[in-house]
Amino acid sequence: MTWRRVGVIYLVLLVLAGVVAYDLRPRQVERTDDPAAPERSLLGVDADAAVRMTFRRDDATVVAERDGERWRVVEPEGAAVGADLIAAAVATLTAGQASEVMSAGDGGNVAGFGLADPSGEVEVELRDSKTPIRVLLGATNPTRTALYAQRAGEPAVYLVGLNVRYYLDLIFEAVGRR
C-alpha cells in the first residue's frame, strides 16, 4: 500500500468523523414543535390574552371575566364557580393545549363532526381584539379521547382534548345547570 492510499483513507475517515460529530451536536428545538406554543392551540394565543369568556350550552349561559390575574363569574350573579376551573377551561383552548386540524374543508360538511348542531359554545374576548372568537364544540372522536371544535366562520375543524367538555360540565354543574 502506498503512502498516497493511506493518506486518502485517513482523509476519508476524518471527513466521516466530522459528519458524525455534526449530526450528534445538540440542536435547538423550533418553536412550532413545542406543543405548548400558542400557535399550536385552537385560539392561537396565550391564556393571558383572554379577558372574557362566555360559555353556552342549550339555554344556559355562564360569563366570566378576568379580574387581574384571576377569573370571576359575572353571570349568573352569585354563581359559585372556582376561578381555577375557569382558568383551566381557558387553558384548554389556548397555549399549553395543542389542537390538530382534522379538516381544512369548505366548512359545509360539519355534520359528521357534530358541529351542525353543536353541543356547546365558548365565546372568547381577547385583550387586543374588538371581535370575540366563537368556538363551536361538536361530537367526540371515534375513540372518545378528543372533541371536534370549530372557530365560527372558519372552515377548519380541529380536534381538541376531551377535557374541554369536562371543564364545561363542571362549570355548568357548579351553577346548577347540567
Number of DSSP helical runs: 3
Proportion of residues in helical segments? 25-40%
Envelope shape: elongated
- Strands of the biggest beta sheet: in what spatial order? 3-2-1-5-6-7-8-4
User: Count of DSSP E strands?
Assistant: 8
Q: Mind telling me the C-alpha Rg?
A: 24 Å
Strand percent estimate: 25-35%
User: How far apart are the termini?
Assistant: 86 Å
What sequence of helices (H) and strands (E) makes up the elements? Answer: HEEEHEEEEEH
Give a short account of the largest sheet.
Answer: 8 strands, antiparallel
Uncertain regions: pLDDT < 50 for 5+ in a row?
none
Detail the topology: elements first, then pairings.
Layout: H1 3-24, E1 50-57, E2 60-67, E3 70-75, H2 83-93, E4 100-103, E5 120-126, E6 133-140, E7 146-151, E8 157-161, H3 163-174
Antiparallel strand pairs: 1-2, 1-5, 2-3, 4-8, 5-6, 6-7, 7-8
Q: Care to describe what's here?
A:
It is built from 3 helices and 8 strands, in the order αβββαβββββα. The protein is of the alpha+beta class and 178 residues long. An 8-stranded antiparallel beta sheet has the order 3-2-1-5-6-7-8-4, with helices on one face. β6 (133-140) and β7 form a beta hairpin. 28% of the residues are buried.
